[in-house]
Amino acid sequence: xxxxxxxxxxxxxxxxxxxGVSRATASLVLRQSPLVATATRDRVxxxxxxxxxIYNRGxxxxxxxxxxxxxxxxxxxxxxxxxxLTAGVEEANDLLGTVCFIANSGESADRQxxxxxxxxxxxxxxxxxxxxxxxxxxxVGELSRLRxxxxxxxxxxxxxxxxxxxxxxxxxxxGRGVAQAMERLVESGRRRIAYVGNMTAHSAGRARLExxxxxxxxxxxxxxxxxxxxxxxxxxxxxxxxxxxxxxAPDAAxxxxxxxxxxxxxxxxxxGRRVGEAFAVIGMDDLPQAAAAFPPLATxxxxxxxxxxxxxxxxxxRIERPDLPFEEDVIPPRLxxxxxxxxxxxxxxxx
Length: 351
Description:
Blueprint: H1 12-19, H2 23-30, H3 38-51, H4 57-63, E1 69-74, H5 80-96, E2 99-104, H6 109-121, E3 127-129, H7 137-145, E4 150-153, E5 168-172, H8 174-187, E6 193-198, H9 203-218, E7 226-228, H10 237-244, E8 252-255, H11 258-270, E9 280-284, H12 288-292, E10 298-301, H13 304-320, E11 328-331, E12 334-336
Helix pairs in contact: 1-2, 1-3, 5-13, 8-9
InterPro entries: HTH_LacI, LacI/GalR-like_sensor, Lambda_DNA-bd_dom_sf, Peripla_BP_I
Protein name: LacI family transcriptional regulator
Domain HTH lacI-type: 10-64
């Protein structure tokens, strides 16, 4: 083994010589290029460790007019769903060598605007954004004008009447998930299916409701079983109680998310109704609390970690190739049937 030089003299050429490769190959390893064989990559990385080589990422970023940072702006960090999404973003960023600034808009468009301004002041290379309720098309227009790469995730800000793509977008196929749940409920003999927690202030909420109403019309269920909800994950309990006391009381419910579904399940039990027998409940998201609930909650898994991974990769691609056509990634949901669906529920279902 060659003698180790002092730290002051350790540069990429020193590493290359220690590993027995060219400086160009060592540079490819630093940039995580797939062109380098695994054995060669390991040899270069071992040499870096032995020599104490520290990559001057700041200088490299300056050469490429980059900071190696991105912003992630989410509307409700209290919701465990967004924690899982953030984990997916960070997993991808770790592999891509990117650092992430995370901001919580609290469903405030004004606060969101301030956060985006601060992220710009930090010269982030791009932004992943789940738009707050009330976000207008001027936000998308401003980001586009500034040529700041961005990806909208889960929700999309409507721009113009044509409804064309105005940027990269990563979403969940909420409509497909609701349709799967409705089909299974009807197959099981349920005919009075409520939709609990309806919120149409953003595109993800509208997609859920539209899918429910389309299926309800198809099976003659009508619209009387729609119960409103709020961004703080509460639903109109009084309206639900009126439905439960009516002659044609619902015998099942699909909920906006798992938080509302768990709350509804607790409420039904307080009223003496046996969840999974007299009344079927299905949530959405498959939070960890869903499987641990009593009875375990049937749910539409929306795969937040995969959403985060896809969004981070999409943003990275946009940063690398800003002039590429806009892309849309749609994550398929998965229906998971547990005891709150019925005693014969088998896990998993759907795809």
